[in-house]
Amino acid sequence: MAMSVFTRLAQPGHFMRWSGAALPALWGVAATLLGVGLYLSWFVAPPDYQQGETVRIMFIHVPAAWLGVFFYATMAVSAVGTLVWRHPLADVAQRAAAPIGAAFTLVCLVTGSLWGKPMWGTYWVWDARLTSMLVLLLIYAGLLALWRTIEDPARAARAVAILTLVGAVNLPIIKFSVNWWSTLHQPASILRMGGPTIHPTMLYPLLTMIAAFSVLGIALHLQGMRTELLRRRVRTLTILEAERLDAAPLPAPQAA
Amino acid sequence: MTRAFLAVLARDLRLAGRIGGSGALGLVFFLMIVVMVPFALGPDLNLLSRIGPAILWLAAVLATLIGLDRLFQADEEDGSLDLIAGTPAPLELVVVAKVVAHWLTTGLPLALAAPVFGLLVALTPTAMAATSLTLLVGTPALTFIGAAGAALTASIRRGGLILAVVVLPLMIPTLIFGVSATEAAGGGTVPFATPLMILAALSLVAAVTGTLAAAAALRWGE
């Protein structure tokens, strides 16, 4: 039952219709949540007693990290859809997710290093979590590069889907080994932010920002998928038109 | 089944021997990198012996990439890959045979030559043996991961660069455990067996995922 509803929603024609209807509302919700979340994190949340005002970077940093990982998971699920069901929308979803995920991962790294300068005294530390995110960004870069190199879209879709799944198998291993490596190389001398508990005055702004970023991410993703679908339609129409012109008999040369 | 495996293995070994490609070339490249590092860092033997295992491992990772782009591409271009894929033998088996042949001509020579190159960076005998052993255990992981990338990029002209970009992030765990196992052998807080076991596990995992992914990529690449 649920599957059939999903199948209907995933049919490209249906998808264009419902996503077109849903997007303005989603953009609205995203803008509102972002507004509220930014207000809370700038004006309501208190400065940290240790980190001062720089703690506010966390309200951007944490949601970006979450979305960077979330979109990789989206890509992995879409990759299964591409390989198992050969669903056209699965590939579209994967393709739209990659640049968004890469962008959020980059935002996470940049905000993290901006926070690190005043806190740790340096823009970059080879801390386990930073390094894992950096490797995630590298994997995103590899996927995007592979997409650009293979010209045929169907072939590119399958190649990228396979690579995405190989990456998904490897990401936990990478995470584990980077943790091992960083504990081996440096003692836990770094000031860990947050700790096990986080005060409610900071938790609520953070949760609002996470919700806002999630809705923003979904809206961006749907918009990207629509663009990609339209781009493919234009491509198909161009090819059809070119074939029609080729098939048409050449006009008789005019006698001069 | 076994005969098909051996046939592909023998064919690839013979090809590697006749074309005079990857094996010797990989070793020369390995030597080049090991020689370049002291020029960059200075001839301080204490420093070199401390970072020696890391240099050798990094060189091994880069040397594995040599010739990897031709692993499936050469067969794809002259059509022999299609013929091999048309046989009753499963494609996964063919992939394993080709990867084993590639490892025998690149990974194995690197592991065996590591002690000699270790002299250049002033490794102690223990460190030499450890580097050799960890390379022996760890380079299969590099080759199998690389094979997946090679299959994905088989149809791309000049796929070598994209292959490196795609494959190198996935080799990070192997590099980490290869170097830390080698360092653990020279004394340290961690017993030698722990990282070595994990390195072996990485090779086994890579053998499974790499084979499946490479076969899938070749099958669906058309």
Automatic annotation (TrEMBL), chain A:
Its main location: membrane. Residues 12-185 form the Cytochrome c assembly protein domain. It is a multi-pass membrane protein. GO terms for biological process: cytochrome complex assembly. GO terms for cellular component: plasma membrane. The keyword Cell inner membrane applies. It is found in: Cell inner membrane; Membrane. GO terms for molecular function: heme binding; heme transmembrane transporter activity. The keyword Hydrolase does not apply. InterPro entries: Cyt_c_assembly, Cyt_c_biogenesis_CcmC, Cyt_c_biogenesis_CcsA/CcmC. The chain crosses the membrane at residues 21-44, 64-85, 97-116, 128-147, 159-182, 202-222. It holds the Pfam family Cytochrom_C_asm. Keywords: Cell inner membrane, Cell membrane, Cytochrome c-type biogenesis, Membrane, Transmembrane, Transmembrane helix, Transport. Required for the export of heme to the periplasm for the biogenesis of c-type cytochromes. NCBIfam families: ccmC. Belongs to the CcmC/CycZ/HelC family. This is Heme exporter protein C. It comes from Methylobacterium oryzihabitans.
From TrEMBL, chain B:
One of its GO terms (molecular function) is heme transmembrane transporter activity. It is found in: Cell inner membrane. The chain crosses the membrane at residues 21-41, 47-68, 100-123, 129-154, 161-180, 192-218. Its main location: membrane. The keyword Cell inner membrane applies. The keyword Transmembrane applies. It comes from the Bacteria. GO terms for cellular component: plasma membrane. It is a multi-pass membrane protein. It holds the Pfam family CcmB. GO terms for biological process: cytochrome c biosynthetic process; cytochrome complex assembly. Keywords: Cell inner membrane, Cell membrane, Cytochrome c-type biogenesis, Membrane, Transmembrane, Transmembrane helix, Transport. Required for the export of heme to the periplasm for the biogenesis of c-type cytochromes. Belongs to the CcmB/CycW/HelB family. This is Heme exporter protein B. The gene is ccmB.
